[in-house]
Recover the amino acids of this structure.
């Protein structure tokens, strides 16, 4: 019985691999194989792979290697993200803990959070010009919003019973917050870190498509202009992989830091 | 009741303080040279409904963006639900399609913009494609998770009592999955709205995203802020409508409440 089940799982993994191989074969067939699509409409998988290797040391056609673009993007994204988290988490906790401030700030915050991060690009470009600062500010806003929402709801979900127990044993307000509310909100805070990372990375790509002189978004936009779709696809793949890797790191950190009761 | 009144009063106070700070910051400091005060923005927002910006009035810009978003949202939703159920129910479909979804999903929809412009041109086609991508994967995956969360015992019990496949589907699988589908639809709606704004900012000649980008090009900060206001309010409106629909249709779940 057990062997049969194992065999079944292996069978499906085999089908998955077969499915991917078939997909790449069809991709190859319609491009290089039969020549239905020209490389300025859909480059072949071989060409994309070649460009991926070449782009690590070649600066053509956009003036920087893949690594330089990647580092430029990461700098902006992580810069904005870290500041967003450093301000967003305490703000969310503070908002949730203090009822009066909550009632005052909440409506303003609900208004601001409905604005997609990208929309801030225009404001920031007009205020501080195209460059590191404007992009970092846009990412800061979009990351901070996600951070505040999640740490806020994390604190709000603290079980009242736990707080009562704390009060019965004579814990001060500060102890209630740091010993009960924050530890129980940690899973939500880490969810927030993950969500914020996703939105920071997406917003960064958008900001780079709109206004920049370096970075992965800039690279694919430039490559599009001269119909080098192989580079566009390389850029998209690198964007996807980087996003996935960053998210995995955060999730791993979350598993390390959160003690007990996982939900 | 008193609690609710207090809440409204404090909320109004909060917004009032926010507007005061904004007003003071723009009138008293040099920030006012680049940033309009809230009264100008509000006035600009309302006059935009009467006086056209570019070729359309505000209401037309909003409707254009909404049309661009809702048509592919609908198709992405229908197809996403179908594929999600298919993958959730049949292991073979799961094995064939899942690797593709896992590979394509990490790419932010916005990163597709250059490719979609080459494939579908600068017109509506490329925007439809983008929004479709933004919705399809989210909805397919949440539906898939929904089908997987069906209680195995219930299915076996129903089978033993002689339920046919279509009965199984309508009375067990669907009721469990619908709340998941709705949470997918809700998330997809938000990301579709953000994506259409980005797409319009990169290339378009009308719509709410165009409002801000054309404001940026001529250095008209009031128009940018008016555009942002329109985006925020429309986004708020569509998500509240969606939430309302959800609580009507899924009255039996916790999420619906």
């Amino acid at each position: 019985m057990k062997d049969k089940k194992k065999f079944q799982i292996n069978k499906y993994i085999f089908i998955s691999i077969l499915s991917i191989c078939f997909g790449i074969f069809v991709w190859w067939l319609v491009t290089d194989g039969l020549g239905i699509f020209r490389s300025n409409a859909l480059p072949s998988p071989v060409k994309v792979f070649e460009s991926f290797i070449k782009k690590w040391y070649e600066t053509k056609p956009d003036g920087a290697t893949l690594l330089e673009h990647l580092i430029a993007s990461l700098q902006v994204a992580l810069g904005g993200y870290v500041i967003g988290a450093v301000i967003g988490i305490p703000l969310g906790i503070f908002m949730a803990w203090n009822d009066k401030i909550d009632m005052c700030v909440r409506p303003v915050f609900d208004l601001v959070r409905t604005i997609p991060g990208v929309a801030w690009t225009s404001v920031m470009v007009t205020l501080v010009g195209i460059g590191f600062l404007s992009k970092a500010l846009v990412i800061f806003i979009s990351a901070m919003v996600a951070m505040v929402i999640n740490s806020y709801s994390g604190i709000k979900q603290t079980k009242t019973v736990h707080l009562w127990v704390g009060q019965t044993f004579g814990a001060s307000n500060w102890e209630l917050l740091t010993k009960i509310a924050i530890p129980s909100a940690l899973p939500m805070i880490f969810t927030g870190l993950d969500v914020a990372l996703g939105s920071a990375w997406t917003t960064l790509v958008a900001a780079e498509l709109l206004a920049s002189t370096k970075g992965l978004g800039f690279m694919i936009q430039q490559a599009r202009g001269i119909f080098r779709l192989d580079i566009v696809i390389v850029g998209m793949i690198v964007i996807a992989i980087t996003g996935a890797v960053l998210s995995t790191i955060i999730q791993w950190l979350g598993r390390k830091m959160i003690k007990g009761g996982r939900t | 009741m008193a609690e609710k009144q207090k809440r409204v009063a404090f909320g109004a106070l909060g917004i009032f303080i926010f507007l005061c700070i904004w007003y003071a910051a723009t009138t008293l400091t040099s920030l006012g040279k680049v940033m309009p005060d809230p009264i100008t923005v509000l006035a600009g927002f309302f006059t935009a409904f009467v006086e056209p910006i570019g070729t359309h009035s505000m209401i037309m810009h909003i409707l254009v963006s909404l049309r661009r978003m809702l048509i592919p949202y609908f198709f992405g939703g229908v197809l996403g639900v179908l594929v999600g159920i298919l993958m959730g129910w049949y292991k073979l479909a799961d094995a064939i399609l899942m690797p593709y979804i896992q590979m394509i999903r990490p790419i932010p929809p916005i990163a597709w913009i250059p490719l979609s412009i080459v494939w579908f041109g600068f017109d509506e086609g490329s925007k439809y494609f983008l929004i479709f991508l933004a919705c399809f994967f989210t909805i397919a995956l949440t539906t898939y998770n929904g089908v997987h969360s069906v209680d195995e015992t219930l299915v076996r019990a129903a089978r033993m009592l002689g339920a046919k496949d279509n009965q199984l589907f309508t009375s067990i699988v669907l009721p469990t999955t619908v709340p998941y589908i709705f949470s997918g639809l809700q998330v997809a709606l938000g990301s579709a709205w953000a994506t259409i704004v980005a797409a319009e900012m990169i290339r378009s000649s009308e719509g709410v995203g165009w409002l801000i980008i054309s404001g940026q090009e001529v250095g008209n900060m009031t128009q940018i802020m008016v555009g942002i206001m329109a985006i925020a309010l429309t986004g708020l409106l569509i998500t509240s409508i969606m939430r309302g629909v959800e609580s009507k249709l899924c009255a039996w779940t916790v999420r619906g409440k």
Observations:
- Chain B touches chain A through 58 residues (CB under 8 Å).
- The domain at 37-249 of chain B is CATH 1.10.3720.10 (MetI-like fold).
- The two ends of chain B are 20 Å apart (CA to CA).
